[in-house]
Specification:
The structure holds two protein chains of two kinds. By secondary structure, chain A is of the alpha/beta class. Chain A folds into two domains: about 40-145 and about 315-365, D-Maltodextrin-Binding Protein, domain 2; about 150-310 and about 365-429, Periplasmic binding protein-like II (D-Maltodextrin-Binding Protein, domain 2), CATH 3.40.190.10. Chain A contains 19 helices and ten strands. In chain A, α17 crosses α19 (about 410-429). The radius of gyration of chain B is 24 Å and the shape is globular. The chains are: A alpha/beta, B mainly alpha.
Chain lengths: ~425, ~290
């Protein structure tokens, strides 16, 4: 009798303790507040670049490098898949759980205007070539890590096989594609239409290249009917429609996505693919051979006497959210990151073009694309005005690219429809 | 302490203790988010800024009267709905067969239920490979028979049929098992009596079995409505709603409205509209079903 009641009491106590324990663990996750600079601080970082993450956490550990100068700060780095990064950050923002320091994608920058701490007075901002070009609401809310140019990567062996030269005008580019297509062995231009976004060098950037202005979309936001015939957007899309109509992207460009596109390129099944300078690292990581890889700038001009424009885009805008509890340490980190040798080694290893004054860009590989050309770079940037219209009418250029690839709708009807929607979206603002 | 109370109080105490945690969880993870969702549907929150304004019924007006893409998405949902409705008689028949009427029915029962046990994203990835136009199994088979390749996921006119096929593969099994459970719960003396009265197989099925499993058929019809209107993982993983929004369903569009187009307020309104549509459809379906019986 006594044994039974003792057993019962013991089991009750155990169950109660377990329940309390579960509740207590759930409550113990509060962040520590900083009082003095000697207190141990943990800075949480998150990023999407796979190559970047590998370098920061394995090749040359950022946490160890920073601890040498700031022994009281521990750095934790988290990798979030590129496809999920933007959504994840938005969700964390609504839960007030953003990391202490994290990069923002340029396309999302205008959304974070009220969320991030202004970094206007930092030395890192003053020493950055591009930071002041991408202000949101008058503030620098992110310091860009790298600048990217857009290229067309090509398979040198295939070009040799068909005795092809690097094209310098749009018609020459189409001719190169057609020659390879006639050979019936390789896919001339790999495009990954299924995922939509791989067509961005054409459907997103060509209107800017046609206008010779990286802020052309912002200008469009002030116009009533920017999709009319004769305007840069229409002209660019006419060229793109010619490219897709030539069926040089394989027999079913909408049937394969980015993963298959890059696998086919490395395997030598395709002759060319358009991507940014960020792709080089991916190519090397996936077993691509450097001696077989060539690169040229996408020629969108009509004749050799027209100016040769190419896009330059800054990316990975490192910033600090207002909800960060260690803002002083986070700012110190950014100052250190962008002024130390670590940054130069980091971007050098990833072959990224640095944005910090004085850091040299020693990459011979991409220099070959600029040889013999008087290239005029245009910096890409979207302002808040354009983003509002884009969101209001769900303006998705990459999706329009898919529509063009399917070839079932005429260009004129696509453009007229866009004009109508644009006018409506502008009047709603 | 517990022993000294009377039975009624003891019962109440046990009930409250056991229901306390589930109730808290439901309030926290279902009721509170639902109230917040309905509240946000009347705002213009973009998902990021710390502030937002109330805009009344503007979001709902835009969705119902001024969004052709929403109606196009609902059409795609309709395809899943019709596909599953057409399959219900087939599922009933298969369940009927599996009710000890074929040899090895136990093994077949397991095989039928297996697709439902596999994770939805894994199923979607598997079928993406099957349908692939580059190295997919289906297209290779077509080429073997000297036929042209088909763009299963790239042709806007057939992508929805391909995706509906995946949904049927995944969910038919659970419907069959539900029907089977219903058949097996029928008292055998009713069927024996009908056999004595001279009823053939078809008459047995149509006049005795079906009316008695009405509650299960109602459940399956409701699951069908809810599943068809909420389908997300299959189109999202396989085509991302493409090509050019051709396979976009209502939930995929809701997610895109929230995250890609930074319009959380409208996305919440879309979620509320979806809830209303599901409830309305279920009520209509139930009324029609009961009408038929009278």
């Amino acid at each position: 009798m006594i044994k039974k009641s003792l057993l019962k009491k013991l089991s009750l106590v155990l169950v109660g303790a377990t329940l309390l324990g579960t509740v207590a663990v759930g409550c113990s996750n509060s962040k520590s507040t900083t009082a003095d600079s000697d207190k141990k601080v943990t800075l949480k970082l998150a990023l999407w670049g796979e190559g970047d993450y590998k370098y920061l956490s394995e090749t040359n550990k950022l946490a160890d490098a920073y601890k040498k100068d700031h022994p009281n700060v521990t750095i934790e780095i988290e990798h979030i898949a590129p496809k999920e990064y933007d959504n994840t950050m938005k969700i964390r923002n609504s839960a007030n759980q953003l990391p202490d320091v994290f990069p923002i994608r340029q396309a999302q920058l205008s959304l974070y205007g009220d969320v991030m701490v202004p970094l206007n007075d930092l030395e890192a901002t003053k020493n950055n070539i591009y930071a002041n070009e991408t202000k949101i609401k008058g503030n620098v809310i992110g310091i860009p890590q790298a600048a990217f140019n857009e290229f067309v990567f090509y398979n040198k062996n295939i070009f040799k096989e068909y005795n092809l030269q690097v094209p310098k005008t749009w018609d020459e580019f189409l001719k190169v594609c057609q020659t390879i297509k006639d050979g019936n062995k390789y896919i001339p231009l790999l495009i990954g239409g299924k995922d939509g976004w791989p067509d961005y060098p054409f459907n997103e950037y060509m209107p800017m290249l046609e206008a010779g202005d990286g802020q052309y979309y912002n200008k469009m936001a002030t116009m009533d009917a920017p999709f009319t015939k004769g305007q840069p957007f229409y002209n660019a899309y006419e060229k793109i429609q010619k490219l897709y109509d030539a069926k040089v992207c394989g027999d079913d460009p909408l049937g394969y996505g980015w993963d298959q596109e890059r696998a086919m390129f490395v395997a030598g099944k395709g002759a060319m693919m358009a991507a940014g300078s960020w792709y080089k690292d991916d190519y090397d990581q996936n077993g691509g051979k450097d001696e077989n890889l060539g690169v040229f700038l996408l020629p969108t001009r009509n004749t050799t006497s027209d100016p040769f424009y190419t896009t330059a885009m800054t990316e990975f805008f490192w910033g600090i959210p207002k909800t960060c509890k260690n803002q002083k340490e986070a700012k110190e980190f950014l100052e250190w990151f962008f002024s130390s040798d670590y940054y130069a080694q980091f971007v050098g290893s990833l072959k990224q073009k640095p944005t910090v004054k004085g850091v040299k860009y020693n990459d011979k590989f991409f220099a070959q694309a600029f040889e013999g050309l008087d290239v005029k770079p245009i910096t890409v940037f979207y302002d808040e005005n354009f983003n509002k219209i884009m969101n209001s009418m769900k303006f998705d250029v990459k999706s329009i690219g898919q529509q063009q690839m399917a070839g079932k709708t005429s260009l004129d009807s696509i453009m007229n429809n866009l004009n109508a929607q644009w006018k409506k979206a502008r009047s709603n603002q | 302490m517990f022993k000294n109370k009377d039975l009624k109080t003891q019962k109440k105490l046990v009930l409250v203790t056991f229901l306390f945690i589930p109730t808290i969880l439901i309030l926290l993870f279902m009721i509170y988010p639902l109230i917040k969702l309905i509240g946000l549907s009347f705002t213009n929150w973009d998902g990021l800024s710390p502030t937002y304004n109330y805009v009344g019924l503007k979001n709902f007006k835009k969705i119902i009267f001024d969004s052709p893409e929403v109606w196009a998405a609902l059409k795609n949902n309709g395809m899943y709905f019709i596909g599953h409705i057409i399959f219900i008689p087939i599922e009933l028949f298969l369940a009927f067969l599996l009710d000890n009427r074929v040899r090895g029915c136990k093994m077949f029962k397991t095989i039928t239920f297996l697709p439902y046990m596999i994770n939805g994203v894994a199923v979607a990835c598997m079928f993406t490979f099957l349908y692939s136009s580059q190295d997919g199994v289906l297209n290779n088979m077509l080429q073997y028979f000297h036929l042209n390749k088909i763009g299963w996921l790239s042709d806007p006119s057939i992508v929805n049929y391909s995706l509906t096929g995946v949904s049927l593969w995944r969910f038919s099994g659970v419907h069959i098992i539900l029907f089977l459970a219903a058949f097996q719960s029928l008292p055998s003396d009713m069927i024996e009596a009908s056999i004595i009265d001279g009823a053939n197989s078809f008459q047995q099925f149509y006049k005795i079995v079906l009316p008695n499993i009405k509650p299960v058929i109602e459940i399956v019809l409701f699951l069908n409505v809810r599943g068809a209107l909420q389908v997300f993982d299959i189109p999202y993983v396989m085509t991302g709603g493409g090509p050019n929004h051709a396979s976009e369903t209502f939930t995929v569009q809701t997610i895109n409205t929230a995250f890609q187009y930074a319009n959380f307020g409208r996305a919440c309104a879309m979620a509320v509209v979806l809830m209303v549509i599901i409830i309305a459809f279920s009520i209509i379906q139930q009324k029609l079903f009961n009408l038929k019986e009278r």
